[in-house]
Amino acid sequence: MRKLLLLLALLLSCLGAGAQGDSLATAALDARMEVYFSALEHCSIEEKKAEVDFMIGSCPDDSLRSHVARKIYAHYLNSPLMGDEAVAIYLTDNWFVPGKASFANDIDLMNARIYADFNRSSLLGEKAQALNVYGPSGEPVAALAGEDGSVVRWPRLRVLFFYDISCVKCRMETIMLRSVFRSRRADIDFVAFYTGSDEEGWQNFRKENLDFNLPRGRMHHCWDPDLASGYEYAYGVLQTPCMFLIARDGTILGRKLDTAALVALLDNYDRDKALEYGDERSRRLYSSLLPEGEWGEDQLRELCRSLGGSTLEKGDTLGFRQVAGDLLYHLSSGKGPEYALGAGYVADSLVLDRPDIWRTHDDSLKVVGLAEMIHDLRQKALPGSRLPSLKIHSVLMDRKGSSEGEWRLDRLRRGDVIIFHTKGCRDCRNELEAASALVATSRRRVLLVDVDSLVEEGGGLADALFGAFDLSSLPYVLEVGRRGTVASRYISLVEK
User: Fold this and answer.
1) Which of 127, 225, 290, 422 is placed for a possible disulfide with 197 were both Cys, Cβ 3.0 to 4.6 Å?
2) Which of 206, 232, 229 is nearest to 219 (CA)?
C-alpha cells in the first residue's frame, strides 16, 4: 500500500502550487486517487485513517492539500462500504475543523460539522447510545435502557428501526422485514421506534404493518413525541427509515441499513455462530499433518504460518477461524508433551494474539475461553520457577528400590523427575515403566505422585497442587533443576 502512496506523493510534489490550476494535472491526480481508493477497500478503518493522513500530509502546499482532503472526504462520505463514513468524520475533526485543510466555503464546513456531530456516536463498533423512551402504554423500553450512557447487554441481537407513519419507504421496508423474520429463526428482538407524534395514527400503523411475529425474540414499540431522548443526535436520524443492528453487548454491528443489508449481516452472523470445531474430519486431517511422535515445535510453527498464508492473506477470516479452532481442539485433546506445548503455542499465537478476529460471543464460548484456560495452565510451573514447598505423601524410586513417605518438592535434587499419575491411564503406566527402567540403569531418582489418592484424602493439598501445576491431563512429568526449581516440564521418559 505504501508503494502506491509514495507514487501519489511523488505526483503531488510534482504538481505544486502552480500546477494546481492545470486541469490536466489535477485530472491525472484525481484518476490516480481513484486507484488508491480501490486499493484501500479491504483495509480496516484505522488503516484507512493512517493512509489518508499520510496522503494529505504529503501535499507540498495548502491549496493542493485542501483539494486532496476534499476529494478524500467526498469519497468516504459517499462510499458504498458501510463504516467508511468514519473516515469522513475523522477528516472533519482532524483536518478541516483545525484549519489544516479547507472546504470551498463555510457552508460546506458547517455541513461537514453537522454530519460529524450527528453520526459520530453511532459508527460501527461504537456502543449504541441508551435512550429513555416509552412504549404505547407509557412503560419504559428496557431494550434501549442503560446506566452509563450506552445500551445495556441483552440476551439477543437487536434490530433498531426508526420510522414514520407517513413515510412510504418505511412502509415498504416493513413488508420486506415481515418476510425476513417469518423465515428466520435467530434470537432477535425488533425495536420499532416511531419518530412522530400522532398517537392514533401510530396505533393503526402498528396493527397494519408491524404485527409480524418473531419466532425467537420480542417486538418492542416505542416513541418520543417530545423529542426528549435526543435520538436524532444519538443515531443520526435525519430521515426515515433508519435501521441499526446491535450486538448482545450493545456494540453497533450495522448502521443505516436497508432490509437487504440487514439480511446480509445476519447471514454472516449466523455463519459465524454455526462454526463447530474438533469434528472427526478435522481430527483425521491434523493427525495426518502432525503424526504422533513425528513432529516438534518447528513443524507446528510452519503449519501455523501456512495456515495464515492460505486464509488471512486472502481475507478469509472465517476460514482462518475454522482451521485454527480445529487445530486448537486437536492439540488440546492430545496426549504427550508436544501436544501440551503445541496447544499453548496455538492458543497464544492464533487466538489470544488476534482479538481482531475472535470477537463474537460464540468465539468466546467455543475458542477464546479454551485458549485462555490453556494459556493460564501454561503459566504454571514455568521453567526456572521455584517448586512449591509442599510436602506430599508419595513414592520415591531410585536404583536401591522404592521408599514411600512424605517429600518436600522444593527439597528434591537436581535431575530428579516428578511424575503425577492416575489409575487406569495407559500413558501413565508407560511412564511408570519407563521410570523403573531409568532408575535401574542410572543414578536418577523419580518421585511418583498418585493424584487419585491426594484427591480422595481431601483437604487443601490437592487444591494446592492443582494450583501449582497443569494437572489437566495426566501423566504430567517434569524435571527438577538447581535449588528446587523447574528445569523442564511436559517431558516424557518413554522412548519414541
Assistant:
1) 225
2) 206
